[in-house]
């Protein structure tokens, strides 16, 4: 009986391991441009008792790199209220089922638009729930399974995957910020070079006209 149970357990473990990166969290990394005096809101339908993790960072903008962020529950309760921050990370337990709102407010700015990178992580699977289902499975009931050892292994895998996901998010934000910095610097270099070129051409034309006018005046005086 033990030999027939082992392949079943091994197959379940492999299935959980393969689909863990897909079922562990819903990653919705995106960038949005919040115009001056405007508010951009995004919505997500979330089940009850889910853990959601919202991280954001202002990667480009005129003046100060800050934004006001608010997270609103389906009933209208204000869960998060960040006033003029550059970046932050919030972990919230969803006590209600429904549509949650995530709003970036740039209404305090009159001229400068802000580019914001945001990442929403929503956990969809729990190790404890999976192990509870495993304990209740009638096909392996009564067998001496190493549940504690399996629990530790799965929790370690989950922790490593969360670290990898956090590192990927950090690299994404860093690359976006570098991209916007290079783009903005390239635009400034282009316009500065164009102004310098126009100035040099203008100075050269003025010098030619002055020299031409000078020699033209001398020739007229000699003829008289």
Automatic annotation (TrEMBL):
KW Membrane (keyword) present: yes
Entry keyword set: Membrane, Signal, Transmembrane, Transmembrane helix
Segment forming the signal sequence: 1-25
Source taxon at top rank: Eukaryota
Keyword Zinc set for record: no
Transmembrane segments: 189-215
Record's bilayer topology term: Single-pass membrane protein; Single-pass type I membrane protein
Pfam families named in the record: EMP24_GP25L (PF01105)
Ranges of residues in domain GOLD: 39-122
GO cellular component: endomembrane system; membrane
SMART domains according to UniProt: EMP24_GP25L (SM01190)
Location of this chain's protein in the cell: Endomembrane system; Membrane
Family: Belongs to the EMP24/GP25L family.
Name the record gives this protein: Transmembrane emp24 domain-containing protein 1
Source organism of the structure: Stylophora pistillata (Smooth cauliflower coral)
Gene: tmed1
């Amino acid at each position: 009986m033990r030999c027939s149970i082992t392949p079943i357990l091994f197959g379940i473990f492999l299935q959980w391991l393969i689909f863990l990166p897909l079922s562990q969290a819903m990653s919705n990394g995106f960038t949005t441009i919040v115009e001056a005096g405007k508010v951009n809101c995004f919505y997500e339908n979330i089940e009850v008792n889910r853990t959601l993790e919202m991280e954001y960072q202002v990667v480009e903008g005129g003046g100060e790199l800050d934004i006001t962020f608010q997270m609103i529950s389906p009933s209208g309760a204000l869960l998060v209220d960040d006033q003029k921050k550059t970046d932050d990370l919030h972990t919230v337990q969803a006590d209600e089922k429904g549509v949650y709102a995530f709003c970036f407010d740039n209404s305090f700015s009159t001229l400068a638009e802000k580019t914001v990178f945001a990442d929403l992580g929503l956990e969809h699977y729990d190790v404890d729930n999976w192990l509870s289902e495993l304990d209740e499975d009638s096909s392996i009931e009564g067998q001496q399974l190493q549940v504690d050892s399996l629990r530790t292994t799965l929790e370690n895998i989950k922790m490593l995957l969360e670290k990898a996901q956090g590192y990927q998010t950090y690299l994404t934000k860093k690359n976006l910020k570098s991209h916007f910095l290079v783009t903005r610097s390239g635009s400034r270099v282009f316009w500065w070079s164009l102004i310098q070129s126009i100035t040099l051409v203008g100075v050269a034309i003025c010098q030619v006209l002055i020299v031409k006018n000078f020699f033209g005046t001398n020739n007229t005086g000699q003829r008289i």
